[in-house]
Write a structure and sequence with these properties.
The protein has about 130 residues and is α+β, with helices and mostly antiparallel strands. The protein contains 3 helices and 8 strands. The strands form 2 sheets. Strands 4, 5, 6, 7 and 8 form a 5-stranded antiparallel β-sheet that branches. A 3-stranded antiparallel β-sheet has the order 1-3-2, covered by helices on one side.
Length: about 130
């Protein structure tokens, strides 16, 4: 059992990218599923599949690599808000990652979304992670 399931999720992706794996399997939760959908919509992963073979289920993520250089699309994936120190930001305080080239994933009262979507809807929330 892990204390911080989101950090475990991000670490599994980070390790799979470092090892040049094509697919990574992660235990599922509703929050992890929402983060996976955002990563897919923003073009950071190739595809994903939710499997309900066990009681908890799992997420299979196909990682995305550049066709020419074989470099991973995800350069860095970093946890921001931790269980010991939560980081919250208002709608006007949400960070811009790499001057708009990266994304911040934010958990708001309207659901999990990117920082840009949260600014557009004028809602703040807990900044979960940065991806670029």
């Amino acid at each position: 059992m892990t204390t911080d399931p989101v950090a475990d999720y991000l670490t599994r992706i980070r390790n799979a990218v470092a090892a040049n794996h094509r697919v990574v399997e992660i235990p599922a939760s509703n929050l992890k599923k929402e983060i996976t959908k955002i990563l897919f919509d923003q073009g950071y992963i190739l595809s994903y599949k939710f499997e309900d073979t066990t009681a908890q289920g799992s997420i299979k993520i196909a990682l995305k690599y550049d066709k020419l250089t074989k470099d991973p699309v995800i350069k860095k994936i970093q946890r921001i808000s931790k269980p010991g120190l939560r980081k919250y930001a208002g709608a006007n305080e949400l960070p811009r990652i790499l001057n708009g080239l990266g994304i911040a994933i934010v958990s708001t009262s309207h659901g999990v979304m990117t920082g840009r979507q949260a600014q557009a809807e004028k809602v703040g929330g807990e900044v979960l992670c940065y991806v670029y």
